[in-house]
Write a structure and sequence with these properties.
The complex is a heterodimer. Chain A is about 45% helix and about 20% strand. In chain A, α7 runs antiparallel to α8 and α8 runs antiparallel to α9. Chain A is an alpha+beta fold. The radius of gyration of chain A is 21 Å and the shape is globular. Chain A has two domains: about 210 residues, 2-Layer Sandwich (BirA Bifunctional Protein, domain 2); about 100 residues, Methane Monooxygenase Hydroxylase, Chain G, domain 1 (Up-down Bundle). In chain A, a hairpin with a 4-residue loop joins β5 and β6. Chain B is of the alpha+beta class. Chain B folds into six domains: about 150 residues, no CATH class; about 45 residues, no CATH class; about 120 residues, no CATH class; about 170 residues, Orthogonal Bundle (Hypothetical protein af1432); about 60 residues, no CATH class; about 120 residues, Orthogonal Bundle (Isoleucyl-tRNA Synthetase, Domain 1), CATH 1.10.730. Chain B has 28 helices and 22 strands. The relative contact order of chain B is 0.05. The model of chain B has no long low-confidence stretch (mean pLDDT about 90). Classes of the chains: A alpha+beta, B alpha+beta. Chains A and B meet through β4, β6 and β7 of A and α8 of B.
């Protein structure tokens, strides 16, 4: 016999993701798709970074593949991956019942807060590369951190008014806990009784090995340094471009510029993994990415302010 | 009346709750009192989701207040009168005119009627909420209010026998009411309360223990019970205990057992990992001395009595301890292999931009420890070896994960490497003492390394112009100085610091030249001058010995001997000859000693030794031997505090004053030649005899460093000196007799000078 909680448990990794998608869709969030660039966390998606700026209401949820080259362990560590998935929810302004909504999502994936010990433990969030910070908690379930819960206070150096509420779930870790799996590579990816059952390892073991080697040993650092400079220069060039296009239309380009800032940030992470950035240089590189992110944020805010009146009319 | 306030929010960080309770109580009660109310008692409480305050015996309204303020004269300039009106908020016709001695003067009479408690509470509470001193606060949603986390509701009720009344108040859209909620999961529904007793009782029914002290006591008790049932004991950790009480509304301690495979981890590792990552209390088995279990404190009672929660925590713990075990095993392997890779690794760790790598520093400390060893009774080879391994654990994986385990791991790894216990203990203990309550190492090798470490920190940061200023002490140099003092004094170490500095074992003079503008001026054939700074000459000379090696050694030689072309740059311009190495070392010794003496004064003052007594001792030769200084000061302090001390001091001072005046007037120094044959009175002869007896005793006692004996020897002079001054007029007309008496007084002065500079003592 199984208890009600067990009966309602997700059976595989994708089940956890699908349930989160349906849950947040039901609360009214726009379900977006991952951003098509390499990022270190779901926060870098413009749907979070840029949309948390300005005054327009916003509600979105999405899965974001995230890359942290230094966390690569050749697929051998039970918990660490250089490529993993985050589930990201961003709502502006943060609703008064955001905590309840969040707890509802835990129930949706089979974590009943009447059986588990769910706690909000102080953890302030800061992203030096984005010039962003917020206050909130890491959410603990039975002593394990399952999510980050943040009220954004500043992004790209701008005060957030209104404030966005951001939720980030580390999907592999959360799913492993829900599914009772000890090693991430053993986690069922699709239903265990599917005609072709696949584990997380079937999908990602080889890629983890290959990327770990490339990240740590092979990536051409000379080229990466050059790419960093190129992305930085292109970002500045886009931001410096006249707001009017050749036909005289007013089209400032915050988003293309921001793509270059994201690119610079990821290249920096790769260089960091290759161990070619010293402690002192590290701060300088982070500062350079932050400077780019700030300018993109500035442009996004002025663009939104200029088009805001129209948006208001339409509404 | 009684007042109940509750500020209900999302989870308040545990570490902020104690301060927040105090602040809430202070701000509200101060505000109420300032507004003219009085109260009998007040108590503040907190849970993760609420801050509460109960005020009892509050007066129902404030007394009317009549305030009179005197203003300018009625014929004062208009500006002055306008200013007075502004400050009082009155108009000209509301002012009273009164005749005073100097003319007619305006008076403002302000009558404030009594106000109802509810109005005052509303005002004070709103101000408190808006200006609450959270260490960090935030906005949320579209609002502008700041609180530690989103604020959801406010209870503000005043109650008396007649019933309860909600204080009318709205802050940023949140209207005060009489409703709250219980435990987030176990009793989430809203309920109404009528006063504090009702509130606390209903909360308890709703699975919320309001009082943090009660929650802490409950955790303590239950954790102890759970441990006791297994024959274990909880490892005391007061900070963690308080934090745990701030993390739950309804504490449910659960006991877990650490898996067998992790029990070989050092207890410090288990405890640190469980505390840092999971906020577990550690449980020790007194029979084995090992940490074998833990207590986690849940915030909920579940149908399965915490089984699911415990299982989850156990899994997380296993993952964490697997990491720790992995670090430990890898580290042990490296330790057994001799830790050479760690030594290499220290070369890559910058200690400070101006002072090079940790590996450089280890070399310096090792040389120093060797030098200091004989003074502390340590074997020089062992001291040097200990210094070389003491920092290696900084490169271990375990210390990388848990920096607070530095030293602790160093000892384990040194043991694993097969090094002697004295060396391993020094690896652990050489950081001590860190705080004033921290224990001072006493094992000779540990003392040698600890002294070398701290001395090197002080000397090199001083040489690199990184002295602490005011409240800024980023490298904790004051702590290092106090550590040195305690190591020296508590272990009675005899060390001449001036001599130690003069030997320049760790190259402080070189660091000084690098960072104080040393440069070489070289005349060119065309008559111009090229200035090469010392810093770049050293760096280039090292990197490219063929090209710059000669310039480097030339400059080093000039630093040694002094040269007019070897100059000090101030704002990039030559400003005179750079001091020679020897002069630099003298400067550094003086600097360092002054700093240590300052710290020593603070240290001794805390032990009840007067600062002027310390000054009197520091003025003596040998003040760079801190053990000697402390012994002298202690003995002197003791003598001055009892018996003959105060009178003796008067006598010594009187002698010194009379001498100083006579010497000033006569332009000579009276120092010797007093002869008893010119003595005219018995008192003079008695003083001669007393000095004859005391002088050799004092000198011998001081030589033997028997300071108490020296004190009693000089104290024996009190009576003869007193009698002398009572009976004898020093400045007589007979010049021979006068000179003889002055020379006699100089013997008193000399006797005193053997012991201390009494002139610096007050009183």
């Amino acid at each position: 016999m199984t208890s009600p909680e067990q009966a309602d448990r997700p059976r595989c990794f994708q089940d956890v993701i699908l349930r989160l998608q349906s849950y947040w869709a039901a609360t009214g969030c726009a379900i977006l798709q991952p951003y098509d660039m390499e990022v270190g966390a779901g926060t870098f998606h413009p749907a979070t970074t840029l949309r948390s700026l300005g005054t327009r209401p916003w509600a979105a949820a999405y899965v974001q593949p995230s890359r942290r080259p230094t966390d690569g362990r050749y697929g051998e560590n039970p918990n660490r991956l250089q490529h993993y998935y985050q589930y990201q929810v961003i709502i502006k302004p943060s609703p008064p019942n955001l905590q309840e909504l969040y707890l509802g999502s835990l129930k949706a994936i089979g974590l009943d807060p009447l059986v588990h010990d769910v706690r909000f433990v102080e953890d302030d969030w800061e992203s030096p590369t984005l010039g962003a910070w917020g206050l909130g908690w890491e959410v603990w379930c039975d002593g394990m951190e399952v999510s980050q819960f943040t009220y954004f206070q500043q992004v790209g150096g701008h005060d957030c008014r209104p404030v966005s509420g951001e939720l980030t779930y580390g999907l592999e870790r959360l799913a492993m806990y829900v599914l009772g799996v000890e090693h991430v590579m053993d986690m069922p990816f699709n239903a265990p009784d599917a005609p072709i059952p696949l584990t997380y390892g079937d999908v990602f073991r080889q890629t983890e090995r290959e990327y770990s080697r490339w990240n740590f040993e092979v990536a051409d650092t000379e080229m990466l340094f050059q790419h960093f400079k190129d992305a930085e220069a292109e970002c500045a060039r886009i931001l410096d471009a006249a707001a009017e296009d050749s036909a005289g239309r007013h089209i400032p380009m915050a988003h293309p510029a921001y793509d270059q800032a994201i690119k610079a940030s990821h290249i920096f992470n790769l260089l960091d993994a290759r161990g070619v950035i010293s402690v002192t240089e590290r701060q300088a590189y982070i500062g350079r990415v932050r400077a780019l992110a700030k300018r993109c944020a500035d442009l996004f805010v002025t663009t939104e302010a200029a088009t805001g009146a129209n948006a208001g009319d339409a509404a | 009346m009684d007042l109940l306030i509750e500020l209900f929010s999302e989870e308040i960080p545990a570490r902020m709750q104690p301060r927040a309770r105090e602040d809430l109580k202070r701000l509200i009660t101060d505000g109420l009192v300032d507004a003219g109310l009085t109260y009998a008692s007040a108590g503040a409480f907190s849970t993760p989701r609420r801050l509460a305050l109960a005020v009892e015996g509050l007066t129902a309204e404030s007394k009317p207040v009549r305030e009179e303020r005197k203003g300018p004269r009625t014929d004062a300039p208009e500006k002055a009168i306008e200013g007075f009106l502004r400050s009082t908020g009155l108009t000209l016709d509301q002012l009273e005119r009164r005749a005073e001695k100097k003319g007619e003067v305006f008076f403002a009479v302000i009558e404030k009627p009594g106000r109802k408690a509810a109005d005052i509470v509303a005002e004070v509470l709103e101000a408190t909420i808006r200006d609450f001193p959270w260490p960090k606060s935030m906005r949320w949603g579209s609002g502008s209010l700041r609180w530690v986390r989103p604020l959801h509701s406010i209870i503000a009720i005043l109650s008396d026998e007649g019933g309860a009344q909600v204080v009318p108040l709205t802050v940023d859209g949140i209207a005060a009411g009489d409703t709250t909620r219980g435990h987030r999961f176990m009793a989430p529904d809203a309920f109404r309360v009528t006063g504090f007793d009702d509130y606390a009782a209903k909360l308890r029914r709703a699975k919320v223990m309001l009082d943090p002290a009660e929650r802490e006591a409950a955790i303590r008790q239950e954790a102890a019970n759970l441990a006791f049932a297994r024959g274990w004991e909880i490892v005391s950790d007061e900070g963690l205990m308080t934090e745990l009480a701030g993390l739950v509304e309804w504490p449910v301690p659960l006991m877990g057992v650490i898996e067998q495979r992790f029990l070989d981890l050092p207890p410090e590792v288990l405890q640190t990992s469980m505390k840092e990552h999971q906020k577990f209390l550690s449980a020790r088995n007194p029979k084995t001395g090992r940490i074998e279990g833990y207590v986690t404190v849940a915030n909920i009672e579940t149908p399965d009595h915490g089984a699911t929660i415990l299982a989850g925590n156990q899994r997380v713990l296993a993952a964490r301890l697997s990491d720790a075990a992995f670090f430990w095993e890898n580290d042990l392997r490296e330790a057994r292999a001799g830790m050479q890779a760690w030594a290499e690794g220290l070369k890559a760790v910058t200690f400070h931009a101006k002072l090079g790598s940790q590996a450089d520093r280890v070399e310096r400390i090792a040389a120093l420890a060797r030098e200091i060893a004989p003074a502390v009774g340590a074997d020089p080879d062992q001291a040097e070896q200990a210094a070389k391994v003491a920092k290696l654990d900084l490169r271990s994986a375990m210390v990388g994960e848990f920096p607070e385990l530095q030293g602790t791991m160093g000892r384990y790894y040194a043991q694993a490497a097969g090094l002697p216990d004295a060396v391993a203990d020094a690896a652990r203990d050489h950081y001590s003492p860190l705080g004033p309550s921290d224990e001072v190492p006493s094992a000779p090798v540990s003392v040698a390394v600890a002294l070398a470490d701290k001395y090197n920190i002080l000397g090199h940061f001083f040489a690199a112009k990184e002295k602490p200023t005011g409240s800024k002490d980023p490298f904790a140099l004051r702590r290092a100085a106090l550590g040195m003092i305690r190591l020296i004094v508590d272990n009675s170490v005899r060390l001449s610091l001036e001599y130690l500095v003069s030997k320049d074992i760790d190259g402080a003079s070189f660091v000084y030249a690098m960072h104080n503008g040393a440069a070489l001026m070289t005349g060119q054939p065309d008559g111009s001058t090229v200035i090469t700074d010392f810093n770049s000459a050293m760096v280039l000379g090292n990197q490219f010995p063929d090209t710059f090696g000669r310039a480097r050694s030339q400059m080093l030689e000039m630093f040694e001997t002094g040269h007019d072309d070897f100059v000090k740059l101030v704002d990039d311009k030559p400003a005179g000859r750079f001091p020679t190495k020897r002069e630099v070392l003298e400067l550094l010794a003086a600097d360092l000693l002054a700093f240590l003496h300052d710290r020593l004064k603070v240290h001794l003052r805390d032990q009840g030794i007067r600062h002027d007594v310390i000054d009197a001792v520091l003025a003596m030769l040998g003040s760079d031997d801190l053990t000697l200084v402390v012994r002298r000061a202690t003995a002197l302090n003791g003598m001055l505090g009892t018996g003959d001390g105060p009178n003796l001091l008067q006598g010594l001072k009187r002698a010194a004053n009379i001498l100083a005046q006579a010497e000033e007037k006569d332009g000579v120094e009276y120092s010797f030649g007093a002869d008893p044959k010119f003595a005219e009175t018995d008192e003079e002869r008695a003083l001669f005899a007393a000095l004859d007896a005391a002088e050799p005793k004092i000198a011998a006692a001081m030589r033997a460093e028997d300071f108490p004996a020296a004190m009693s020897a000089i104290a024996a002079l009190r009576a003869p000196i007193d009698a002398f001054f009572e009976a004898v007029q020093v400045n007589t007309d007979n010049q021979v007799v006068r000179r003889n008496r002055l020379n006699l007084l100089s013997r008193i002065r000399e006797a005193g000078r053997l012991i201390a500079d009494f002139g610096r003592i007050e009183g």
